[in-house]
Amino acid sequence: MDAMSMSRGLRRGGVSGRTGRGLSSWNLMCRAGKGFGKPKPKAPEEKAASDPPKPVSLGTKPPPPPSFGGGDGSWASEVREQRAYESTSGEAPGDPATPKGPARIPAEQYKKVDENFVQALAFLFVGIFVEGLLVAGSGFLPEDVDNFIVTTVFPAFTPTLGVFLLISVLYGLFKTKIEPE
User: Fold this and answer.
1) What's the pTM value of the predicted model, to 2 decimals?
2) Which domain holds residue 15?
3) In the chain, which ranges are E strands?
4) In sequence order, what are the residues at sequence separation of 6 or more whose Cβ sits closer than 8 angstroms to the Cβ of residue 42?
5) What are phi and psi of 67, to 5 degrees?
6) Is residue 14 a part of any domain in this protein?
7) Tens digit of pLDDT for each residue in 49-92?
8) What is the model's pLDDT at position 140?
9) Of 116, 126, 125, 123, which Cα lies nearest the Cα of 171?
10) Position 108 confidence tier, pLDDT thresholds 50, 70, 90
11) How many structural domains compose the chain?
12) At what angle do helices 154-177 and 107-136 cross, to 10 degrees?
């Protein structure tokens, strides 16, 4: 049965030759690709062609920005005043002084703290490396060593990683927020 005779048979309400389905199921299959829900809105160019042009009033001005007093009342003068205020004074009147930039400590103390952070991170790195090797090789070691690794080393592995992460974050904050004098 060719496509033309199949479509003629369906128009007459017949049954399709291949699937044995009637007209109602064929219509359902054909309509399934059209989608469901609300129709999509027209494209902007279609709207512009069908809708009449809207009247434009040329005599209206946008409202001026709010005035906060002082100056000539224009927005530009207020911005200039604010910039001048910020550049001349580092603090607001009545507020405690806020430091600009990173905190400063003596160079000797900065060097000691920096070295201690690096040593702690190096120690933890070696510890994590050794713990990882022990956990990875625990199945190949003798029974008593394997039990020690499973009961002691393996439960301490994740907290050790957490401590390493915490110290590395603190070291990063130290390096960005504190400068030597």
Assistant:
1) 0.46
2) 3-31
3) 103-105, 178-180
4) 50
5) -100, 135
6) yes
7) 556 666 656 666 666 666 555 555 566 666 666 665 565 555 55
8) 93
9) 116
10) very high
11) 2
12) 160
Choice between 145 and 57, residue whose per-residue pLDDT is larger: 145
In this structure, are residues 135 and 148 in contact, taking their beta carbons and an 8 Å threshold?
no
Residue 25 maps to a domain:
yes
For 138-166, b where at least 16 C-beta lie within 10 A, e where not — what string? Answer: beeeeeeeeeebeeebeeebeeeeeebee
In whole angstroms, what is the distance from residue 72 CA to residue 81 CA?
Answer: 11
CA distance 103 to 17: 86
Average pLDDT over residues 102-109: 91
Nearest to 120 by CA among 52, 169, 68, 55: 169
Q: What angle (nearest 5°) sits at the alpha carbon of residue 96, between those of residues 91 and 101?
A: 60
The two three-digit tokens of residue 177, written as one number: 């927020």
Tokens of 78: 């207020």
Cα–Cα dist 2/18, whole Å: 11
